[in-house]
Amino acid sequence: MTFNIKDFPEKYLDTYNIEIIHPDDFIFYQIELAPGKACSAIRDQRNALKNPPKNTEEFLAILQKQQLPQTVSVLKKYVDLI
Protein backbone atom coordinates (compact mmCIF):
# COMPACT_ATOMS: atom_id res chain seq x y z
CA MET A 1 0.00 0.00 0.00
CA THR A 2 1.41 3.32 -1.00
CA PHE A 3 0.14 6.47 0.66
CA ASN A 4 0.81 9.54 -1.44
CA ILE A 5 -0.48 12.95 -0.44
CA LYS A 6 -0.47 13.95 -4.14
CA ASP A 7 -3.43 11.58 -4.59
CA PHE A 8 -5.53 14.10 -2.64
CA PRO A 9 -5.71 17.52 -4.36
CA GLU A 10 -5.80 20.29 -1.77
CA LYS A 11 -8.60 22.20 -3.51
CA TYR A 12 -10.96 19.25 -3.01
CA LEU A 13 -9.85 18.66 0.55
CA ASP A 14 -10.48 22.30 1.42
CA THR A 15 -13.87 22.31 -0.31
CA TYR A 16 -15.12 19.48 1.86
CA ASN A 17 -13.04 20.30 4.97
CA ILE A 18 -11.25 16.95 4.83
CA GLU A 19 -8.03 16.28 6.74
CA ILE A 20 -5.56 13.75 5.39
CA ILE A 21 -4.42 11.09 7.82
CA HIS A 22 -2.40 7.95 7.29
CA PRO A 23 -4.48 4.79 6.73
CA ASP A 24 -2.96 3.26 9.87
CA ASP A 25 -4.20 6.18 11.96
CA PHE A 26 -7.65 5.99 10.37
CA ILE A 27 -8.10 2.27 11.05
CA PHE A 28 -6.65 2.60 14.55
CA TYR A 29 -9.15 5.38 15.37
CA GLN A 30 -12.07 3.30 14.05
CA ILE A 31 -11.07 0.38 16.28
CA GLU A 32 -10.75 2.68 19.30
CA LEU A 33 -14.14 4.32 18.62
CA ALA A 34 -16.13 1.12 18.09
CA PRO A 35 -14.06 -2.01 18.74
CA GLY A 36 -16.92 -4.46 18.23
CA LYS A 37 -18.04 -3.07 14.89
CA ALA A 38 -14.48 -2.57 13.65
CA CYS A 39 -13.41 -6.08 14.63
CA SER A 40 -16.49 -7.53 12.98
CA ALA A 41 -15.65 -5.74 9.73
CA ILE A 42 -12.01 -6.80 9.98
CA ARG A 43 -13.05 -10.41 10.65
CA ASP A 44 -15.30 -10.30 7.57
CA GLN A 45 -12.38 -9.03 5.51
CA ARG A 46 -10.11 -11.80 6.78
CA ASN A 47 -12.79 -14.42 6.11
CA ALA A 48 -13.18 -13.12 2.55
CA LEU A 49 -9.59 -14.22 1.84
CA LYS A 50 -10.20 -17.71 0.53
CA ASN A 51 -7.39 -18.47 -1.89
CA PRO A 52 -5.69 -19.35 0.35
CA PRO A 53 -7.60 -18.66 3.58
CA LYS A 54 -5.67 -16.74 6.24
CA ASN A 55 -5.64 -17.44 9.94
CA THR A 56 -5.47 -14.51 12.33
CA GLU A 57 -1.68 -14.49 12.64
CA GLU A 58 -1.21 -14.61 8.86
CA PHE A 59 -3.72 -11.79 8.44
CA LEU A 60 -1.96 -9.62 11.03
CA ALA A 61 1.36 -10.28 9.26
CA ILE A 62 -0.19 -9.02 6.02
CA LEU A 63 -1.39 -5.86 7.74
CA GLN A 64 2.08 -5.34 9.23
CA LYS A 65 3.65 -5.60 5.76
CA GLN A 66 1.14 -2.99 4.56
CA GLN A 67 2.59 -0.48 7.01
CA LEU A 68 -0.22 -0.69 9.57
CA PRO A 69 1.74 -1.21 12.81
CA GLN A 70 -0.70 0.66 15.11
CA THR A 71 -3.57 -1.33 13.70
CA VAL A 72 -1.77 -4.63 14.23
CA SER A 73 -0.81 -3.62 17.76
CA VAL A 74 -4.37 -2.82 18.81
CA LEU A 75 -5.83 -5.84 16.98
CA LYS A 76 -3.62 -8.14 19.04
CA LYS A 77 -5.85 -7.20 21.99
CA TYR A 78 -8.88 -8.38 20.02
CA VAL A 79 -7.39 -11.48 18.37
CA ASP A 80 -10.36 -13.64 19.42
CA LEU A 81 -12.75 -11.27 17.63
CA ILE A 82 -10.99 -11.16 14.29
Topology:
Elements: H1 10-15, H2 23-33, H3 35-48, H4 56-65, H5 69-75
Helix pairs in contact: 2-3, 2-5, 4-5
Structure description:
- This protein is mainly alpha-helical and 82 residues long.
- The chain has one domain.
- Helices cover 59% and strands 0% of the residues.
- It has five helices and no strands.
- It has helices spanning 10-15, 23-33, 35-48, 56-65, 69-75.
- α2 (23-33) packs across α3 and α4 runs antiparallel to α5.
- The mean pLDDT is 93.
Name the features.
0% strand; 5 helices; elongated; 82 residues; mainly alpha
What's the Cα radius of gyration? 15 Å
Question: What level of helicity do the residues show?
Answer: 55-70%
**Low confidence ranges:** none
- Specify the number of helices: 5
Distance between the termini: 21 Å
SSE run: HHHHH
How many β strands by DSSP?
Answer: 0
| Biggest pleated sheet | none
Instruction: Please indicate the count of domains.
Output: 1
Residues in β-strands, percent: under 5%
For the residues shown, what is the average pLDDT? 93
